[in-house]
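Run log, item B.
One chain of 270 residues. Sequence copied directly from the ordering sheet:
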Amino acid sequence: MTFSLEDKIAVVTGGAQGLGRAISQRLAHEGCQVVIADLKDEAAQATAAEIVKTTGRGALALKTDVTQEADVEALFHRAISEFGRVDIVVANAAILIAGPIAEADAEKWRAVMTVNLFGNFLTLKHACRVMKPRRKGVIIQINSKSGKKGSAANSAYAATKFGGIGLVQSVALEMAPHGIRCNAICPGNLLESPLWTDPDHGLFVQYLRADKVPGAQTIEDVHQAYVAQVPMKRGCAYEDVCNALVFLASDAAGYLTGISLSVTGGQEMN
């Protein structure tokens, strides 16, 4: 068994920026042709063009709303039409809106559920539909350590991630007889990523406003509080997640299905 992903066809939702962009690039560097699905069409096109330029691999960008079944179905039809099959699907698209439960905006809470859980359902449904006839395929859901332990002032996100692990385990059980593996990766806090550092909507700002870190007066206070929680004393990096993903996508992980792999520097060990 090897870690080689040479000539595999991969679909990545939320693949235009941040962690999704890093995953798309890494899969291309490992030998995959990549279909990048994202609502942000311009960013998706730019990522695809960069992949073609730097790796010589095929890359296709498609504007996709993972909460709309017609979009998700069209995504997989186009991938099959363009490349003939789908070998790897990475369900990465997600949003996070933090806030104390007593003041939570009900429609924002619903929006997190719709993207993170219903969107995952649609992605996994159509991945299974195109993989079953070949009796082969790998599905990897990007989950979170918040899928294993509750998160104060972040109930919507944690609820979707707990639900996502249940979805992965259920799909793994159902698809095992069809030769399809389904696993989750649960990253720790990506403290250096735009998800956290964006000055207007990043999690450092959101968590400071939501009083998620008691006593924190500044963004740096929030940052230090999260670093202090990690036994290895650093945040999770894109490379950490991509390394785990390459392993799970490869034949070397051929006996692994239904697992939720913590990539947290020891912060979460379950």
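Observations after the first pass:
- The first helix runs from residue 18 to 29.
- The chain has a mean pLDDT of 97.
Flagged for discussion on Thursday.
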